[in-house]
Design a protein that fits this description.
This protein is mainly α. It has one domain (about 5-95). Helix content is about 55%, strand content about 5%. The protein has a two-stranded antiparallel sheet. α1 runs parallel beside α2. The longest helix has about 35 residues, at about 70-105.
Length: about 120
Amino acid sequence: MPADQMLAWDAAWTAALDELELSLEESERLLRSTPEDAPPAELVVRPDGSAVLGWAPPTLNTPMPPELLDRAQALLARQAELIGQTMAAMSSSRSHLDLLGRVSGSPRSGRSVGAVYLDVRA
């Protein structure tokens, strides 16, 4: 295989891993941020401040270069950890919403949605 073709494949795989890493960084940032800080979910904000649509798997018709395997495995482990953190955050949010619904008189709670006053003078 020609050296220039090998370099092009290496560059394509490196770019694909760079995009995946940026997506992971953005997801980690979103988990740490408040709702006011978060951009729309479909946008990924790069370190340079530019925003792009979320990560999509690249179409690469070549095998991954062996020297990128360690990086890819590290990103996979990081992605698995992030999935666990996201699931925990979703579960926590769901619990908070359920508790809020029981306390605030939302339609789900079966309580009156409007204000209720008790006349204690009678």
